[in-house]
Design brief:
This protein is mainly α and about 200 residues long. About 80% of the residues lie in helices and about 0% in strands. Helix 2 runs antiparallel to helix 5. The chain is elongated, with a radius of gyration of 20 Å. The relative contact order is 0.16.
Length: about 200
């Protein structure tokens, strides 16, 4: 694809954005995110209601969950830097930042596993008390959505090394969808860790 073709594609994409405001794929993603937000709000509301009914084991949130919060927030920053490098077609910087984001995503999952191990070491195994069950379930469910984000990042990572970097509408849209979703799971974890901390 020539530079002229690329500019034409960019102009078409910008014109379509002005006409439609929100791309249909982004709209679908926003709808999906809204449903996930409602689900997690329902879960945290059920947590509050169940806690008030008694038979509730009090325990500390694993300290590693707070370290994990920094890791996932840092991953949002590195993904934003990857997007900036992509828009400038700086191949080396883009590869470096997208790789860093992927590694941080994997690190988040590993640290989550260590957090669950810490919970078990505190005497909070699964299926013993609803307090522990809620924390495991909420964090597992969030981790499952992080896995989905990591899978999408893996595709971008492969393409970053396999295909010459060009700012095409299709590739830009794909990266923007990943960014929206990744920032969502990051924000969701921040909400969950604050919520669980306030419930102690």
């Amino acid at each position: 694809m020539s530079a002229v073709d690329t500019r034409v594609d960019q102009q078409r994409m910008e014109a379509a954005t002005r006409r439609n405001k929100i791309h249909p794929h982004k709209m679908l993603l926003y709808i999906g995110i809204t449903s996930l937000v409602m689900m997690f709000i329902a879960l945290t509301s059920a947590y509050i209601v169940r806690r008030a009914s008694g038979n509730w084991l009090e325990f500390s949130i694993p300290g590693i969950f707070y370290i994990n919060t920094l890791v996932i927030l840092l991953s949002s920053l590195t993904l934003q830097l990857a997007y900036r490098a992509f828009k400038r077609e700086r191949s080396g910087a883009y590869r470096g930042w997208i790789t860093t984001t992927f590694v941080l995503g994997i690190a988040f999952l590993f640290l989550q596993y260590l957090g669950w191990e810490e919970l078990a070491a505190q005497g909070v195994p699964l299926k013993i008390n609803p307090a522990g069950d809620f924390v495991y379930s909420i964090s597992w469910l969030h981790a499952a959505h992080v896995v989905g984000g990591i899978a999408a990042l893996a595709v971008s990572l492969v393409l970053a090394y396999a295909i010459k970097l060009r700012r095409t509408p299709v590739r830009q849209l794909r990266l923007e969808l990943i960014m929206i979703y990744w920032h969502f799971v990051d924000g969701l974890w921040l909400y969950l860790i604050i919520f669980l901390s306030l419930q102690r």
